[in-house]
Write a structure and sequence with these properties.
The structure is a single chain. 24% of the residues lie in helices and 27% in strands. With 169 residues, the chain is an alpha/beta fold. The chain has a 5-stranded mixed sheet with strand order 1-2-5-4-3. A two-stranded parallel sheet has the order 6-7. β4 and β5 form a beta hairpin.
Amino acid sequence: MAENVNQNASAVVEHLRAWNSKAVEEVIEFHGETTIVVHHTLLRSVALECRDALQFNLLSDATCVDRYPVEPRFELQYHLTSIPNRTKIRLRTRVPGDQPNVDSLVPVWLGAGWLEREIFDLMGINFNDHPDLRRILLPDDWKGHPLRKDYPVEGFRDIPATYLPGLKK
């Protein structure tokens, strides 16, 4: 089964390279999984091609890694599944820390909305054209993005005590 998945993932890479010679920056094979690295400016168009031409009809997860102090600082990863073709791939894109902006994949997979909101809330990545980009886990007036590596371990000193369970004003 793993051989079949890898063979299908190789066909995905070949298709994307034929579709746009700049679509694939790098291919990473690790433990039988394929990660396709794309430039952040091409993320949405590559995702559309994966959905429409390659039948990747399920976005199962999206996550972000902070590589601080390395630049580009952030890595977004989208886990895709083609149910008809029984193939899984991961799209990865690197986003610079000074302008953490990338096109939202909500127009491609509606389910990206909640995942991108969580990434925005905790990491501070802005998703262009997201229909409802606001905090999802933390209060609206929370300062900063707590999963960034440069976020203060103790938080910011001016956080109201109402956010800290067990503390009284």
